[in-house]
């Protein structure tokens, strides 16, 4: 008797809910789309009930139309498409996630070794920069992390500052006679005087919770956090301002690590792989992939741990340098596009 009463009550409740909101609305949009294609989204009602009006949005911005939208200037990666549907005295918000993909496949590069230089095989390289004839290097591991100035030709450490044991050193870059260095999971970075390595300031991460790679261009610091995101930070206060996401024509590329800004592009290695990605800083498109796996055995290493993880560029002489974690060599290479 009790079971039957509950069942009847459940049916009545379901009926009342159905009567109160009989509309079955659906927002239709593609799950992925290349940015050279036109985007169209729509709302339908399963039972063909009347809809008074619909307002469409992309990432919260109102769209004048919902069909044949030009998205060529949009950043790649995840976006939110939504619609506010008005019917009778009601309204309902519908939201989907859509991924914008690159229009083209990335170019593939090989390399020539121009020069090879000695490198400290104990250095767990996390960041690398070329400045005024010297290499500046950030090394990792708890209790081993350091900031170094290194003679390119000999590999000799000419200046060194050890980090406190609780910090795991990560990427670094040099701007306006200051060295910026990240730490991995401590949520903060350091700013040093270029000449004497004296620590002048600490800065803290926001949504990019971890520190991996660091570079800069004329107006921003550029930071990776181990995901597919690349963050752009204000140079004055180191606050995050926006991000892009690295995508090819068919997938995201995550685990972005050490980075360098070279001739208007972001060069990044992917953690645990011996390759460099060439990324468009405006929209996140992976425009090129350089396969450098042949360098790891040349530097006395193998496996997924001690892989390539250092990229530096001599802009004055157009020289690209790479090394890796505990590699015994640093290489000057020239990238060549595969035909």
Describe it for me?
With 339 residues, this protein is mostly beta strands. It has two domains: 22-101, Immunoglobulin-like (Sandwich); 107-337, 6 Propeller (Neuraminidase), CATH 2.120.10.30. 7% of the residues lie in helices and 51% in strands. The chain has an eight-stranded mixed β-sheet. A five-stranded mixed β-sheet has the order 2-9-8-5-6, with no helix packed on it. The radius of gyration is 26 Å and the shape is elongated. The relative contact order is 0.14.
Determine the fraction of residues in helical runs and give it as a percent range: under 10%
Measured distance between first and last alpha carbons: 79 Å
Shape: elongated
Largest pleated sheet: 8 strands, mixed
What's the layout of helices and strands?
Blueprint: H1 2-20, E1 25-28, E2 32-34, E3 38-39, E4 42-45, E5 53-58, E6 61-62, E7 69-70, E8 77-87, E9 90-101, E10 107-118, E11 125-131, E12 134-139, E13 146-151, E14 157-162, E15 169-175, E16 178-183, E17 188-193, E18 199-204, E19 214-216, E20 220-224, E21 229-234, E22 240-245, E23 256-262, E24 265-270, E25 275-279, E26 286-291, H2 295-298, E27 308-314, E28 319-324, E29 329-337
Parallel strand pairs: 2-9, 10-26
Antiparallel strand pairs: 1-4, 3-7, 5-6, 5-8, 8-9, 10-29, 11-12, 12-13, 13-14, 15-16, 16-17, 17-18, 19-20, 20-21, 21-22, 23-24, 24-25, 25-26, 27-28, 28-29
């Amino acid at each position: 008797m009790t079971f039957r009463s509950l069942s009847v009550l459940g049916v009545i409740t379901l009926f009342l809910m159905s009567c109160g909101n009989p509309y079955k609305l659906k927002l239709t949009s593609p799950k992925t789309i290349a940015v050279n294609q036109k985007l169209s989204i729509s709302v339908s009602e399963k039972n063909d009930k009347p809809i008074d009006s619909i307002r469409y949005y992309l990432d919260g911005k109102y769209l004048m139309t919902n069909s044949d939208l030009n998205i060529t200037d949009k950043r790649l990666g995840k976006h939110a498409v939504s619609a506010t549907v008005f019917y009778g005295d009601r309204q309902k918000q519908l939201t989907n996630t859509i991924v914008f993909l690159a229009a083209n496949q990335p170019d593939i590069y090989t390399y020539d070794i121009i020069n090879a230089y000695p490198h400290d095989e104990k250095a767990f390289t996390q960041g690398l920069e070329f400045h005024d004839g010297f290499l500046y290097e950030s090394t990792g591991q708890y209790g081993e992390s350091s900031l170094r100035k290194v003679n390119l030709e000999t590999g000799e450490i000419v200046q060194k500052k050890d980090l406190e044991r609780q910090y795991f050193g990560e990427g670094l870059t040099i701007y306006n006679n200051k060295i910026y260095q990240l730490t991995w999971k401590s949520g903060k970075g350091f700013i040093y005087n270029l000449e004497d390595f004296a620590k002048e300031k600490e800065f803290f991460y926001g949504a990019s919770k971890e520190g991996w790679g660091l570079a800069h261009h004329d107006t921003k610091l550029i930071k990776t956090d181990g995901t597919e995101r690349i963050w752009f930070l204000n140079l004055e206060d180191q606050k995050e301002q926006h991000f892009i996401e690295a995508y090819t024509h068919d997938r995201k590329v995550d685990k972005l690590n050490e980075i360098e800004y070279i001739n208007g592009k972001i060069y990044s290695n992917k953690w645990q792989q011996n390759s460099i990605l060439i990324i468009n800083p405006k929209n996140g498109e992976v425009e090129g992939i350089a396969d450098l796996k042949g360098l790891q055995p040349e530097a006395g290493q193998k496996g997924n741990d001690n892989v390539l993880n250092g990229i530096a560029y001599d802009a004055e002489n157009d020289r690209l340098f790479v090394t890796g974690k505990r590699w015994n060599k640093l290489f000057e290479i020239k990238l060549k596009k595969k035909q």
